[in-house]
Amino acid sequence: MTSPVCRRARGRVESKLKDLGCYLPLYKAVIKGDWNEVRKFLDEDPEALMAKITIESETALHIAVGTGKHLEFVEKLIRRMSPEDLALTDQNGDTPLSVAAAVGNDQAAKLLVSKNPELPNISGKSGLPLHRAAQYGHEKMISYLLEVTRNDMESYIALGLVEKYPEMATAEVHGMGSPLSVLARKSNVFPSGADSWWKIFIRYHVKILKFIKQLRRRDKMQHDALELVKSLCSEILELDDAKAFSLLQQPLLIAARLGTHEIIEEIVDVFPSAIWASDEENHNMFQLAVLHRRENVFNLIYQMSEYKNLITRHIDNPDNNNILHLAGKLPSLDRLNRDSGAALQVQRELKWFKEVKKYVQPGQKEAMNKDGKTPWMVFGESHEKLMKDGEKWMKATAQSCTVAATLIATVAFNAGLKVPGGDSNDGLSQFFNHTAFGVFAVADAISLFSSVSTILVFLLILTSRYSEEDFRLILPAGLFVGMTMLFISIISMMVAFGSAIYLVFGPHRAKVVIPVGSALVLPFTLYVLLRPLYHMIKYKTIGPSIFGKQSDRELH
């Protein structure tokens, strides 16, 4: 063996081997699966295990995996290598796993992935290992790699397959439909897959660096998904109109149910007639958006021309319901439970009804369905229980907050009568000239007035009529104002308490003042962390509307 020569060759050309002849014995031993010869070579030159020993820059592991045999031999090589070493690539950017995928060596693939789970996500010039397995038709390998490839690579995988095999775009699988239908069901890979209020909350409460990394990965996934939709649509357009419509109809309606407006925009952009697609109950995409409360899809109406007046007049066949009747129906629980508390759920439902009402003809607002009910009658009947639950929830919340505000008001009132340090001979506090005393007085007054205001606001809530219009604005706004005032009263009380401690112990008793001052932060922190409801109410009351134009892209 000539391992010293090999070392000198590596030293001269760094990672690129110039003289491959020195590795010929190792190459032949790997091809034969002769472990004894390989072990002798590696014992003398351990670095040879990571060296590029062929003109294609393959390592010994690349070759061993590519032979498709000698599994024990491959396992022994893997034991000698670190997880990072398993990711070494040849001149085509292929890892040993990509080679295993190309030859269908699924046993070797499992050994590789068990030591380095990231290998399935490393792409070479020919794509991911999954692409290589698909290219050579290894079904067993494809099934395995689908399980171990990271979820956010799905769109990238599919996009690569469609680009290589365009006929896949128009293929239909029994029970699943076309690839575009399958993609339409994956609403989470598109930007519209997350609730906007939660994204706002995340942006302010998650560690910034970690969040940026997540955003980049999500943006890449979303970009690949959109590119895949475009590729599928362009392939479908090669068919005749009738076939294209039948292939595009189902994914468009699925996207409407799931709220994936990006798919709808791409489909309508290349095939405008698809906007008239309807399901077996004669529901078009906007009616489905209303039924399933998908504001991302319904907002596409803002991007339409006067055709929106035609499409919103559509009547479903079975029950003679117009789109406003559908807005009056109660949605599924998963859509309803996006809001915390029955009162906020009623508020969202009323906002939906009011928004849809803008786009129906005057006669449809009072039109009766097959059961002789107007849209508002449908809304009242279907939401009756929810409104009762909303009333109970609102009263329970108001009562709890009233008790807390009453306690704070009592404490603040007593603190104002019994000032720290007692009175001097002239009736004034002995700390009258201290700055901290002024802080105490102001904070105590704010705490008292804000807690009393909180009590009054929640009394108004408790004595409300609890009509539909009250739920839409007055009650949520009152709840937001009341909770804000309660929050202010708590903070003011803590500030007043801190000022009193400082006045009593003075700046020279730091061992007492500093721990107490630090502890004052705890109630504030707990209130913020344990009151997600407050953030939700704030967003619902003063946040942007869920309805409105999402893009300048003209739809139809």
TrEMBL record:
ANK repeats: 92-124
Domain of life from the UniProt record: Eukaryota
Keywords, ordered alphabetically: ANK repeat, Membrane, Transmembrane, Transmembrane helix
Gene3D superfamilies: Ankyrin repeat-containing domain
Matches recorded under Pfam families: Ank_2, PGG
Sequence ranges assigned to domain PGG in this UniProt record: 391-504
Keyword Membrane belongs to the record: yes
Protein name: PGG domain-containing protein
